[in-house]
Structures are given as C-alpha cells and as structure tokens.
C-alpha cells in the first residue's frame, strides 16, 4: 500500500513539475510575442505585428495585454513567494483585464474609446485597416485575466473557477484555430467586427 501511495505521489509530482514548466514557457511566449507586436506597431515593422502573415495583424492593445498576462503568469508559476511579486502579478492581470473590458465595452457601445488609436496617437501607421482588438480576443483576455487573478488568491476553493476560466479561454482559441484551418470566418470573427488574429 505504501509503494502505491509513493508511486501516486511521484506521478503527481512529475505532472505538477511538467505543468509548471509549460506555464513558464507559455508566459515567456506571451511576453515575447507581446513585445514583438508592440515594437512592430511603434517602429512600423509589419512583420512583427503579423509574424505568420495571416490576414489580420495583432492589435497593439492585444500586444500590451499579452505582455501583462505573460508577466502575471510567469510570476504566479514561479516558486518565489515574495509579496511584492504577487502584487505585481495581480496588477499585471488587472491591467490586462481592464484593457480587455474597455475594448469589450467599446464593442457593445458602452464607451466610445478607441484604445488602439489612443495608444498609438501620432505614430499610427497604415499597417492595415484592421488595428483593433477583436471582440473574441477581448473575451479571451478577460477570461485569462480573471483566471490569473483567482489563482493569485491561492485559495484552494477558487482554483476550480480559475481552471474553468482557463479552459474556456483555450476553447475559444481552439475555435479560432479551427476557423482559420478550415476557412470558416464565423469561427474567428463576429459579424463585421475585427476578426481575431491567428497568433493571438
């Protein structure tokens, strides 16, 4: 019986370390992609805004959210328990959530803010007529942000909700990937609104 428990504990430990490694890799990828997109918009380098040359470039606001989510996930998946790092992770996730909500509210006409034009200001370049975060990108960013905020609380009962939010974001992403793969625009765009960029 003891050997079975030790095998289960060992298997769980290996699974947990693999999940943490994947989380760190995802955080690094999000952070690097976010910085590439941000620099692409500010330096007028289209290939950085659209790294795999899909029909839609990644919006500047999406790039900034990717940076914030990468920072938050990287901190939360590290083994360090510094309070100031935890607050930085919460702040980064909250900033991504706020930006995602502002864009979402602009789509449902609660606010008239054009976040990408405000962020770029006079540096706005004609990279593409589509330079706005898509509504489904906004939903995905909000889901991931809430998931990270719930994870940062480190309350075991909230981990189920956190995981449910993360799984919903993965489902949304998979629908977009299938839409691009099989040529179904309704899977990556909502009506006449900006479609979601594939790398997002």
How would you portray this structure in words?
With 200 residues, the chain is mainly alpha-helical. Helices cover 70% and strands 0% of the residues. The protein has 8 helices and no strands. The longest helix has 42 residues. The chain is globular and about 60 Å long. The model has no long low-confidence stretch (mean pLDDT 83).
Quickly list its features:
mainly alpha; 200 residues; 8 helices
Please state the overall shape, judged from the principal axes of the Cα atoms: globular
Ends apart, CA distance between termini: 47 Å
What's the count of strands? 0
Question: Describe the biggest sheet?
Answer: none
What low-confidence regions span 5 or more consecutive residues with pLDDT below 50?
A: none
**Number of helices, where a helix is a run of at least 4 consecutive DSSP H or I residues:** 8
Mean pLDDT: 83
In terms of structural class, how would the helical and strand content be classed? Answer: mainly alpha
Order of helices and strands: HHHHHHHH
Radius of gyration: 18 Å
Beta-strand percentage? Answer: under 5%
The percent of residues in helical segments reads: over 70%
């Amino acid at each position: 019986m003891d050997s079975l428990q030790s095998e289960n504990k060992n298997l769980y430990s290996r699974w947990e370390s693999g999940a943490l490694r994947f989380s760190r890799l995802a955080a690094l990828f999000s952070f690097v992609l976010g910085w590439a997109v941000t620099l692409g918009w500010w330096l007028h380098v289209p290939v950085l805004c659209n790294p795999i040359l899909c029909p839609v470039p990644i919006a500047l606001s999406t790039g900034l959210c990717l940076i914030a989510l990468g920072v938050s996930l990287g901190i939360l998946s590290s083994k360090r328990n510094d309070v100031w790092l935890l607050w930085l992770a919460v702040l980064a996730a909250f900033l991504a959530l706020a930006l995602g909500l502002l864009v979402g509210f602009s789509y449902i006409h609660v606010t008239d803010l054009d976040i990408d034009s405000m962020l770029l200001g006079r540096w706005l370049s004609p990279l593409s007529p589509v330079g706005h975060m898509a509504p489904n990108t906004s939903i995905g960013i909000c889901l991931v942000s809430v998931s990270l905020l719930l994870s940062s609380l480190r309350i075991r009962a909230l981990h189920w909700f956190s995981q449910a939010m993360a799984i919903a974001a993965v489902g949304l992403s998979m629908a977009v990937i299938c839409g691009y793969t099989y040529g179904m625009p309704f899977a990556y765009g909502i009506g006449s609104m900006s479609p979601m960029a594939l790398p997002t």
